[in-house]
C-alpha cells in the first residue's frame, strides 16, 4: 500500500489536495472573464434563461424553475447580460465541485475527495458541456452530490441536521430536474437493502427529510398539476418513444450516452492506476476501512439499479434516444464507487498521473471555451457566438426601433441576444414547434397592446424560413419586412454575412 513519494514540502499535489477551493475559484473566474470577453452571443440554454428569467414564475414550461429563479435573482442586480449568465453558471459549477469534494471527504482522505471531484471534470457532459451550454444539468448534479453527502454523513455520524440537509438538497434537486425523482427512488431502494444504511436513514428525525423536501417542491408542484402537458411534452418528444424503432437502436443510443459520459474518466483511470485496479493485495484488503462494509454494497447496488432501469427504458418503454445530460447526474458518483471498491488506490504516491491529467483537462477546456468563436472561423461555420449582437441592436435602432416594447424572435437565441442589449424590452420566441406559434403571436401582441408599447418581429434567416413570416404577417397586415445584412464577428472577411429580417410596429398596437 505504500510507495516512495516526495517530501510534503515539495509535493505540490499534496498541497492541492488540502487546499483545492482557491484553485477552483480561480478557474471559475477565468471562465467568467473569458465568456464575457469573447462574445455577446448566446447558445440555446443561455438564451432560454434570458427569456425565462424576465419574470419570477412558479413554472416555465418543460424544465423545473430553480435555475431560472437564481438567474432572475442575479438579473435583478446585473441585468439580462452575458455576465449574469456566466456568474450563475460558474458559481453553480464551483458549488458542484465543492459538494463532490465533501461527498468524497465523508469517506475518503483529501486526495480521494479531490479525485472524486476531479472525476466529475473528466465527465464530458460536465467538464465541457456545462461550460459550453448547460444550465439545469449543473444544478441537479450539485444537488445529487449534496444529497449523497448528507446520506453518507448520516450513516457515519447520525444527527438531525443531516436529515434537514437531505431534505433541502432533495427538494431543490426536484426543482432542478424532474429526473431527480428517479435518483431518489433508486437511492432509496439501494439504501434500504443495506442494513447499516437503512437503520441510519430511519433514525430519529427521519421524517424531516421528506417533509422539508415536499415543502420546498410544493409551490411548483401545484403549478405542475395544472400544467402537466406543458411540462412533459417536450421531454417525451426528446426521448423518441416509439414501438416502430428497434431495441438495438435504443441500446446503442444508451451505450453512446453512457460512454460519452463516463468514457474519458474510465480511460484516464485505467491509464493512471493500471494493474492496481485488478491486483489482489491480501495485506491491504485485511486493513479495509470500517465504512467499506456498507458503502460498497450501497454504491454498487445503486449504480446497478440505475443501469438496469436505463436498459428497461429501452426494452420495456421503447425509449430510443438518450442525452448525456440525462445520464450524468445518475452516474456522477461512479468515481466515489471506484475508490470505495479499491481503497488501495488512496495510498501515498498513487494517482499522481490522474491528478496531473485532471489539471491538464481543466486548462484544455478553459482554452477551448475561450477560442470558440475563432474555432468557427476555422470550420468556416459560424454559430451563435459569432452573431454581431451590438451591430444588430444599433442597426435596429437606426431603423426606428426604440429599444422597448415586445421583441418576438424566430428562435430563443435572436430574441435573447436582442434583449441583452435592450433590457427595457420584453422578449419571447415564437416557433412552429408543438403547434404553439399562433398562441405565442397572439400573446405577444396582447402584451404590447396592454403595455402601450411597440412590437418588433425579427428572424435570423440561417435558422428561420420564409414561411415563418406567414403567420406573423397575418397578425400585422400591411407590414413591410425589412432586411439587415451584417458581417459575423471573429470570422474572415470572405465569410457570407448574416441575414436578418425584421418588422417594427411602433405603439400603439391594437389587440
Q: Can you give me a brief rundown of this structure?
A:
This protein has 511 residues and is mostly helical. The protein contains 25 helices and 5 strands. A 5-stranded mixed sheet has the order 2-1-3-5-4, sandwiched between helices.
Explain the overall architecture.
- The protein is mainly alpha-helical and 511 residues long.
- The protein has helices at 12-18, 21-38, 44-52, 66-78, 82-105, 110-121, 124-127, 129-133, 136-156, 160-176, 180-192, 195-201, 208-226, 228-239, 247-273, 282-286, 292-315, 324-331, 334-341, 352-370, 372-379, 389-398, 412-421, 437-451, 469-475, and strands at residues 406-409, 426-429, 455-460, 482-486, 498-505.
- The protein is globular and about 80 Å long.
- The model is unreliable at 1-5 (pLDDT under 50).
Estimated radius of gyration: 25 Å
**Can you summarize the main beta sheet?**
5 strands, mixed
* Helix/strand structural class: mainly alpha
Distance between the termini: 77 Å
Overall shape: it is: globular
> What share of residues is helical?
55-70%
Query: Strand portion, in percent?
Result: 5-15%
Helical segment count: 25
Assembly category: single chain
Looking across the biggest beta sheet, what order are the strands in? 2-1-3-5-4
**How many strand segments?**
5
User: Low-confidence runs (pLDDT<50, min 5 residues)?
Assistant: 1-5
Mean pLDDT: 91
| SSE order | HHHHHHHHHHHHHHHHHHHHHHEHEHEHEE
Amino acid at each position: 500500500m505504500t510507495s516512495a513519494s516526495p517530501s510534503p514540502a515539495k509535493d505540490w499535489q499534496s498541497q492541492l489536495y488540502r487546499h483545492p477551493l482557491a484553485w477552483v475559484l480561480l478557474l471559475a473566474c477565468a471562465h467568467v472573464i473569458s465568456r464575457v470577453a469573447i462574445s455577446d452571443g448566446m447558445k440555446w440554454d443561455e438564451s432560454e434563461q434570458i427569456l425565462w428569467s424576465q419574470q419570477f414564475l412558479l413554472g416555465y414550461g418543460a424544465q423545473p424553475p430553480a435555475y431560472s429563479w437564481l438567474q432572475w435573482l442575479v438579473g435583478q442586480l446585473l441585468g439580462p447580460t452575458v455576465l449574469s449568465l456566466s456568474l450563475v453558471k460558474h458559481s453553480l459549477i464551483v458549488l458542484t465541485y465543492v459538494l463532490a469534494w465533501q461527498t468524497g471527504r465523508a469517506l475518503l482522505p483529501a486526495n480521494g475527495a479531490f479525485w472524486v471531484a476531479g472525476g466529475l471534470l473528466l465527465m464530458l457532459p460536465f467538464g465541457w458541456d456545462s461550460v459550453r451550454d448547460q444550465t439545469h444539468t449543473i444544478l441537479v448534479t450539485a444537488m445529487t452530490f449534496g444529497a449523497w453527502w448528507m446520506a453518507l454523513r448520516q450513516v457515519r455520524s447520525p444527527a438531525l441536521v443531516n436529515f434537514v440537509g437531505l431534505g433541502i438538497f432533495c427538494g431543490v434537486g426536484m426543482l432542478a430536474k424532474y429526473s431527480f425523482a428517479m435518483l431518489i427512488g433508486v437511492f432509496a431502494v439501494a439504501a434500504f437493502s443495506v442494513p447499516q444504511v437503512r437503520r441510519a436513514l430511519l433514525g430519529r428525525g427521519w421524517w424531516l427529510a421528506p417533509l422539508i423536501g415536499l415543502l420546498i417542491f410544493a409551490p411548483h408542484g401545484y403549478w405542475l398539476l395544472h400544467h402537466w402537458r406543458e411540462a412533459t411534452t417536450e421531454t417525451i418528444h426528446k426521448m423518441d418513444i416509439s414501438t416502430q424503432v428497434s431495441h438495438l437502436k435504443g441500446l446503442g443510443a444508451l451505450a453512446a450516452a453512457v460512454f460519452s459520459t463516463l468514457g474519458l474518466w474510465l480511460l484516464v483511470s485505467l491509464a493512471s492506476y493500471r494493474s492496481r485496479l485488478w491486483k489482489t493485495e491480501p495485506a491491504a484488503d485485511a486493513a479495509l476501512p470500517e465504512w467499506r462494509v456498507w458503502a460498497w454494497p450501497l454504491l454498487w447496488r445503486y449504480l446497478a439499479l440505475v443501469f438496469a432501469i436505463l436498459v428497461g427504458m429501452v426494452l420495456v418503454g421503447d425509449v430510443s434516444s438518450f442525452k448525456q445530460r440525462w445520464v450524468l447526474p445518475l452516474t456522477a458518483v461512479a468515481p466515489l464507487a471506484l475508490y470505495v471498491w479499491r481503497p488501495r488506490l488512496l495510498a501515498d504516491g498513487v494517482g499522481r498521473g490522474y491528478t496531473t491529467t485532471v489539471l491538464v483537462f481543466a486548462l484544455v477546456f478553459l482554452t477551448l471555451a475561450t477560442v470558440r468563436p475563432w474555432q468557427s472561423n476555422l470550420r468556416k461555420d459560424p454559430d451563435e457566438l459569432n452573431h454581431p449582437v451590438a451591430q444588430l441592436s444599433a442597426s435596429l435602432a437606426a431603423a426606428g426601433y426604440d429599444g422597448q416594447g415586445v421583441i418576438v424572435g424566430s428562435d430563443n437565441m435572436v430574441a435573447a441576444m436582442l434583449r441583452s442589449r435592450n433590457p427595457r424590452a420584453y422578449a419571447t420566441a415564437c416557433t412552429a414547434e408543438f403547434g404553439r406559434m399562433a398562441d405565442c403571436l397572439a400573446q405577444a401582441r396582447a402584451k404590447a397592446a396592454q403595455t402601450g408599447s411597440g412590437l418588433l418581429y425579427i428572424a435570423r434567416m440561417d435558422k428561420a424560413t420564409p414561411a415563418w413570416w406567414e403567420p406573423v404577417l397575418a397578425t400585422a397586415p400591411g407590414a413591410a419586412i425589412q432586411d439587415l445584412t451584417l458581417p459575423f464577428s471573429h470570422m474572415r472577411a470572405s465569410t457570407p454575412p448574416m441575414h436578418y429580417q425584421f418588422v417594427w410596429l411602433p405603439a400603439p398596437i391594437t389587440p
